[in-house]
């Protein structure tokens, strides 16, 4: 990258979810954002959180009404104007969940790319429209700057047929009914961190456990995604806060054919009423609450979750015919020492020599297995916004270099 081209420039990373808009402002080539914000509960009251470079709370702009994503984008602009009026935003980067089979890396937003993203909406109806509303809003408020797009699916485009396909008629595969995999920005970041802190492990076989509200695993072999647990949609694989994870498709047929479920009722159940929430009989989708409740309802959900994470890690390792490093990341993976312990204590047979003192006493990025453990275990906090900002810097640098 040509560093001169990005000096004094700001790069805005935008991550629009169904009811939230996370944003982070980076300056020049620095990896530490000067401002991080989160507009939560868009459309239903809404709250805005704003932090500076050291995590200190920053003053909020006067108007923080969040009636829709456009309004949230106005809060972003007002926050920039309030705290960093001197920074010229050179590019805005967006997280987009689905890039289909078309993109294996970040791209500048062009009318054709926008059309493709819109066409992939039918593959991710519950996520893509919100990503798009973030893009439309940014195009309206920053018409003059380049917008780029980072796809969650892109990191997994290195996977081979046997890990991408479903065993259904091949013509459906040709029509795009295949595993795409998600959480790609998070895996991309973790992969880059492993390369930085442990290059010898980066060349080996790594299983990353992204355990948040959405959860998935990824087998990364020599720096490339080989397999992942999420599939055609973000429903497959591990149980999540409210999503079911892996399920016998016969159950779905039974509910439709014999239990009178409509398609929309089934969809609501699988996306919003299942996972930890469903398993705990409606107690909570939140791992902290389940842990603290100390009830059998909470404990059975945790047992199911731990069992699936542990067996999923074993499957990922088998796919790579070995494992050298297991990484925990995202809300649960980074913060719950108890879940990490429960998962890892069942992985002794695979070569994990877990160190619970390191697990409970340390903080942030660290080793939580013994030094001699055949399979190393680490916690690495993820940073999806930084992946977006780095891509924005790179593309703006390249454009300036050829201009
Ligand atoms: P999202 O997928 O929405 O980005 P996060 O990565 O923020 O989600 O993860 C949210 C999950 O992390 C919740 O289940 C929350 O309870 C869990 N979590 C956060 N902190 C802790 C903690 N200290 N102990 C247990 N679980 C935690």
UniProtKB/TrEMBL annotation:
<dbReference type="GO" id="GO:0006085">
    <property type="term" value="P:acetyl-CoA biosynthetic process"/>
</dbReference>
<keyword id="KW-0963">Cytoplasm</keyword>
<feature type="site" description="Transition state stabilizer">
    <location>
        <position position="183"/>
    </location>
</feature>
<dbReference type="InterPro" id="IPR000890">
    <property type="entry name" value="Aliphatic_acid_kin_short-chain"/>
</dbReference>
<keyword id="KW-0547">Nucleotide-binding</keyword>
<feature type="binding site">
    <location>
        <begin position="210"/>
        <end position="214"/>
    </location>
    <ligand>
        <name>ATP</name>
    </ligand>
</feature>
<feature type="binding site">
    <location>
        <position position="95"/>
    </location>
    <ligand>
        <name>substrate</name>
    </ligand>
</feature>
<dbReference type="GO" id="GO:0005524">
    <property type="term" value="F:ATP binding"/>
</dbReference>
<dbReference type="InterPro" id="IPR004372">
    <property type="entry name" value="Ac/propionate_kinase"/>
</dbReference>
<feature type="binding site">
    <location>
        <position position="22"/>
    </location>
    <ligand>
        <name>ATP</name>
    </ligand>
</feature>
<dbReference type="Pfam" id="PF00871">
    <property type="entry name" value="Acetate_kinase"/>
</dbReference>
<comment type="similarity">
    <text>Belongs to the acetokinase family.</text>
</comment>
<dbReference type="InterPro" id="IPR043129">
    <property type="entry name" value="ATPase_NBD"/>
</dbReference>
<protein>
    <recommendedName>
        <fullName>Acetate kinase</fullName>
        <ecNumber>2.7.2.1</ecNumber>
    </recommendedName>
</protein>
<comment type="subunit">
    <text>Homodimer.</text>
</comment>
<dbReference type="GO" id="GO:0008776">
    <property type="term" value="F:acetate kinase activity"/>
</dbReference>
<dbReference type="InterPro" id="IPR023865">
    <property type="entry name" value="Aliphatic_acid_kinase_CS"/>
</dbReference>
<keyword id="KW-0418">Kinase</keyword>
<dbReference type="GO" id="GO:0006083">
    <property type="term" value="P:acetate metabolic process"/>
</dbReference>
<feature type="active site" description="Proton donor/acceptor">
    <location>
        <position position="152"/>
    </location>
</feature>
<keyword id="KW-0067">ATP-binding</keyword>
<comment type="pathway">
    <text>Metabolic intermediate biosynthesis; acetyl-CoA biosynthesis; acetyl-CoA from acetate: step 1/2.</text>
</comment>
<feature type="binding site">
    <location>
        <position position="15"/>
    </location>
    <ligand>
        <name>Mg(2+)</name>
    </ligand>
</feature>
<comment type="function">
    <text>Catalyzes the formation of acetyl phosphate from acetate and ATP. Can also catalyze the reverse reaction.</text>
</comment>
<dbReference type="GO" id="GO:0000287">
    <property type="term" value="F:magnesium ion binding"/>
</dbReference>
<keyword id="KW-0808">Transferase</keyword>
<feature type="binding site">
    <location>
        <position position="384"/>
    </location>
    <ligand>
        <name>Mg(2+)</name>
    </ligand>
</feature>
<keyword id="KW-0479">Metal-binding</keyword>
<feature type="binding site">
    <location>
        <begin position="331"/>
        <end position="335"/>
    </location>
    <ligand>
        <name>ATP</name>
    </ligand>
</feature>
<keyword id="KW-0460">Magnesium</keyword>
<feature type="site" description="Transition state stabilizer">
    <location>
        <position position="243"/>
    </location>
</feature>
<dbReference type="GO" id="GO:0005829">
    <property type="term" value="C:cytosol"/>
</dbReference>
<feature type="binding site">
    <location>
        <begin position="286"/>
        <end position="288"/>
    </location>
    <ligand>
        <name>ATP</name>
    </ligand>
</feature>
């Amino acid at each position: 990258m040509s560093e001169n081209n990005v000096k004094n420039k700001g790069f805005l990373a935008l991550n629009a979810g169904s009811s939230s808009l996370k944003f982070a402002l980076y300056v020049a080539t620095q990896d530490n954002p000067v401002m991080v914000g989160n507009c939560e509960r868009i459309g239903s009251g809404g709250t805005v959180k704003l932090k500076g470079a050291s995590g200190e709370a920053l003053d909020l702009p006067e108007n923080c009404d969040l009636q829709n994503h456009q309004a949230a984008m106005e809060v972003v602009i007002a926050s920039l104007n309030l705290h960093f009026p001197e920074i010229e935003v050179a590019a805005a980067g967006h997280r987009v969940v689905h890039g289909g089979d078309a993109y294996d890396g970040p791209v500048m937003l062009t009318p054709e790319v926008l059309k493709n993203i819109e066409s992939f909406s039918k593959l991710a109806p519950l996520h893509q429209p919100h990503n798009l509303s973030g893009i439309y809003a940014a195009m309206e408020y920053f018409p003059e700057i380049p917008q780029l797009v980072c796809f969650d699916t892109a990191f997994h485009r290195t996977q081979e047929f046997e890990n991408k396909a479903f065993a259904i008629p091949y013509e459906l595969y040709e029509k795009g009914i295949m595993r795409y995999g998600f959480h790609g920005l998070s895996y991309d970041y973790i992969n880059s961190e492993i390369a930085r802190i442990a290059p010898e492990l980066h060349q080996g076989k790594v299983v990353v456990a992204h355990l948040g509200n959405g959860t998935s695993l990824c087998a990364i072999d020599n720096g490339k995604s080989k397999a992942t647990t999420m599939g055609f949609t973000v429903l497959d694989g591990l149980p999540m806060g409210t999503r079911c994870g892996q399920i016998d498709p016969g159950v779905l047929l039974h509910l439709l054919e014999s239990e009178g479920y409509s398609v929309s009722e089934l969809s609501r159940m699988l996306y919003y009423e299942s996972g930890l929430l469903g398993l705990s009989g409606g107690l909570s989708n939140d791992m902290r609450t389940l842990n603290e409740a100390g009830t059998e309802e909470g404990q059975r959900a945790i047992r199911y979750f731990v069992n699936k994470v542990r067996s999923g890690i074993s499957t990922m390792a088998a796919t790579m015919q070995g494992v050298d490093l297991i990484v925990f990341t995202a809300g649960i993976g980074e913060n719950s020492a108890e879940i990490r312990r429960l998962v890892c204590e069942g992985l002794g047979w695979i070569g994990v020599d877990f160190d619970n003192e390191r697990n409970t006493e340390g903080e942030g990025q660290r080793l939580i297995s013994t030094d001699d453990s055949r399979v190393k275990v680490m916690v690495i906090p993820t940073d999806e916004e930084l992946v977006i900002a780095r891509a924005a810097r790179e593309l703006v640098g390249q454009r300036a270099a050829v201009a």
